[in-house]
Amino acid sequence: MSAQSTDLKISPLVHVSKASCGYKQKTVFKALTLQLFPKQFAGLVGPSGAGKSTLLKSILGMAPLRSGSISISGKRVNGQPPEDVGYVPQIETVDWDFPVTVEQVVAMGLYRKSTRLPWLTRSERTLIRELLERLNIGHYVNRQIKRLSGGEQQRVFLARALIADPKLLILDEPTSGVDVKTQHAILHLLGEINRKGVTILLTTHDLNAVARHLPWVICFNQKIVAQGPPEEVFTSQVLSRTYDSEMKVIRQGEVMMVDDSPHAGHHFDKHSHENNGAPHPH
Questions:
Q1: For the segment 210-224, what is each residue's pLDDT rounded down to a tens digit?
Q2: Residue 10 DSSP code
Q3: Taking Cα atoms as reference points, which of 142, 153, 141 lies closest to residue 94?
Q4: What 8-state DSSP symbol labels residue 101?
């Protein structure tokens, strides 16, 4: 059975049920229902201000709901970071002037399991070094975090999220601020982590990277517009509804490219205006 299956025989790992969330007088999303299943690798895409980060924070217990509920592994999220969930924030939100080493950043991910923090045991240091080696940054263990490149910093925060062996990994814009080569390397690495059994949900603005690397996509703009495999969901109609702007999808054989440049709709070709039966929102 596919890891992306929504077969009712499989219990969802994440269950968002009729959830509403907002800040002060602004409602970000309302009566939202969404399920993520074990071993899914899903991308949440949509325009800026669509509520993607708020949805991630609500799953993490960082943004309180106005109504509805969110549960992970059958346990309701009640304003506390859920167990067995790793989180990688946007690197743009991190204070890089804080004097901390790579090892110290990764050790922060052990706060639920370690009884000796900020002091590390020998076995904990070994665990951190082995994980950094797996992510190809083992030689940076004692380096100040601000001296790393954007891609290296992203891997450090990924290590911090993975060190506690989570069932669910949530990443907010993990490929922002890095070059194309690093972007593909990060998504390839996440694919390997997913194949080892970790469920992954990430946000991103790069639709073409999603189309190449992710098996499941959720088009979101304060509600779920559509979800499913990219080859089914990425149509001009669905993306235009998601982004409130005309979007062009170009297909040549098995190759698909999304033209998200300004005025893409002005050059719209009806022959590329495909609809492959994208599923209705759940």
A1: 999 999 999 999 999
A2: S
A3: 153
A4: B
